[in-house]
Specification:
The complex is a heterodimer of chains A (about 210) and B (about 300). Chain A is an alpha+beta fold and about 210 residues long. Chain A has four helices and 13 strands. Chain B has four helices and 18 strands. The chains are: A alpha+beta (about 210), B mainly beta (about 300).
């Protein structure tokens, strides 16, 4: 993986580490690992992995911006490039979503084929964010790729299993959303009272199966 | 031990309990939350002798009416709230004593769109991830995870020092809330990916605040800057300015989606976020490019102004 790192300020209280070069889509385990290390550092308020970046929030009155930027690059450069996560979540799904037939039509497939394709893959959680508990799951079979809805729904029910572009995901709570809804699951992806409210962590693997 | 201090007669348009928010959980998708105008919020707490972490009411627009259930010291801060105790005007940005059965009203704001009401002792409310800030999308924390409604009772926690009535924060030490707003901003990491004309236009054009604005972000419109840039979804920050492909900027605020897929072209400096959030729909702003050094200086100046309120 020939990646380079670039750090720039994001406002006066955050830094953005971006990966340049290397594969455009794929899970980079270094981001979450470095985030975890940084969160323990004095003056760092939070560290948030993106798909190809890491955003670090800090208190500029407690830590020097330049020193922190240098530390971020150093940590990223020395982090192991293989994931240590081997968690696999098996998610049961009722494949009866409002967009299932529409998606099948657009792709020239039967609904049954859409379900078979969706359940055939092992997905990788690239990062968590957007809403609490939302995992961006990469690895959607290419036969299922569609752009997002032109007009997002104002409310998608919690537990909705959705696809868009080259990813799939499960809405952890009711929220506006622009992905195609192909099923529902009862597995909670967001448990506010749990020690870790998000079910998913970056690097986790996910498989779906039909009920 | 808690004590009921107020009964809500009218909640106003949108009133929630907020504090400094819950930082450190964005990698679980939980936004920091907390008060939108951190200067006014912090000032309100300090004026009534509270720790800055105490919870207070954040109210959008006027309309709040409360009945005091017992004596307490309160302060109301914000854009410029018009405060009444029974039939008389009371000063804003000042700690004052309210007696049992007194009615506290904030019918309107002379300017600005948000105000804070802090009670000596701090508001009691349920917590989530260490904060009493209301998280409306999941109905968590604050007052049962929702906005105030008529009939609600507000309680305070510990009794705080009482020798605070009369303290005020002079106007010269407050943010220069104004309309149109001039928002100092730093360049965002993706600004240079826009064509040069668009980069300049972002900072030269006047942007109008739309009605579709809330605690996740303020949406602006004007002469659009459309583009076809794509960025891999990334963690944003409060104050950052996103530019979706249609080219109308969005200012991300306390409850922003923690990960977003649009370029970040600018970031309003912390010292000027109060000016931004106090805007009302239809008002305009310009982004004014400044350096990191200026941003740091302005932030420290604002902290100094708050530090002038005695402990």
């Amino acid at each position: 993986m020939a990646t380079a790192f670039q750090v720039s300020p994001l406002g006066e209280r955050s830094l953005l580490l971006e990966l340049t070069g290397g594969p455009a889509r794929g899970f980079d385990p270094r981001l979450a690992l470095v985030a975890e290390r940084l969160r323990r550092r004095r003056g760092v308020v939070d560290a948030v992995p993106g798909l190809r970046s890491l955003t670090v929030h800090f208190d500029p009155d407690r830590v020097d911006r330049e020193r922190l930027a240098a530390a971020v690059v150093r940590l990223a450069g020395s982090a192991p490039q293989h994931s240590s996560s081997d968690r696999l979540h098996r998610i049961p799904v009722r494949y009866q979503g409002p967009d299932l037939e529409g998606v099948a039509d657009r792709l020239g497939l039967s609904s049954k084929m859409v379900v078979e394709l969706h359940t055939s893959a092992t997905y990788r959680c690239l990062t968590v964010g957007f809403v609490p508990g939302w995992g961006y799951l990469g690895g959607l079979p290419p036969e299922l790729r569609l752009p997002r809805l032109a007009s997002p729904r104002t409310l998608v029910p919690a537990g909705s299993v959705a696809i868009a572009e080259d990813m799939t995901g499960v809405y952890p709570l009711a929220h506006p959303g622009g992905w195609h809804l192909i099923g529902t699951t009862e597995v909670p992806f967001f448990s506010p009272r749990a020690a870790e409210p998000s079910l998913l962590r970056p690097g986790d693997r996910v498989r779906f199966h039909a009920l | 031990m808690t004590t009921e201090v107020f009964e809500v007669l009218e909640p106003g348009r949108s009133s929630t309990i907020q504090d400094l928010g819950r930082s450190g959980h964005q990698s679980q998708g939980v936004p920091p939350g907390g008060a939108l105008d951190l200067f006014a919020f912090t000032a309100a707490n300090l004026l009534v002798g509270n720790a800055t972490s105490a919870a207070a009411l954040e109210c959008r627009q006027g309309g709040l009416r409360l009945k005091a259930l017992r004596a307490s010291v309160i302060a109301v801060t914000g854009g410029e709230p018009e405060v009444w105790i029974n039939g008389s005007r009371a000063p804003s940005w000042t700690a004052f004593l309210v007696g049992p059965d007194d009615e506290v009203r904030v019918p309107r704001l002379a300017s600005g769109s948000l105000f804070y009401l802090a009670v000596s002792g701090g508001l009691e409310a349920s917590e989530w991830l260490g904060s009493r800030s209301t998280y409306l999308p999941a109905g968590l924390a604050g007052l049962a995870g929702r906005r105030l409604t008529a009939g609600d009772r507000l309680s305070r926690t510990v009794l705080a020092p009482s020798q605070v009535a009369g303290r005020r924060l002079d106007r010269t030490l407050r943010p220069r809330y104004a309309s149109p707003a001039r928002l100092r901003a730093l360049s965002g990491p993706h600004l240079r990916r826009l064509d040069f004309k668009a980069q300049r236009a972002l900072f030269e054009r006047e942007w109008t605040l739309s009605q579709e604005s809330d605690r996740t972000g303020y949406r602006f419109f004007g002469q659009a800057l459309p583009h076809s840039l794509s960025v891999a979804s990334l963690g944003a920050c409060v104050g950052s300015v996103q530019l979706p492909p249609e080219g109308q900027p969005v200012l991300l605020l306390a409850e922003h989606p923690t990960i977003g897929g649009y370029p970040l072209v600018a970031c309003v400096i912390a010292a000027d976020l109060p000016l931004a959030v106090q805007m009302s729909a239809g008002q305009t702003m310009r982004l004014d490019p400044v350096s990191l050094a200026e941003a740091d200086r302005a932030r420290r100046e604002a902290a100094g102004a708050l530090a002038s309120i005695p402990l």
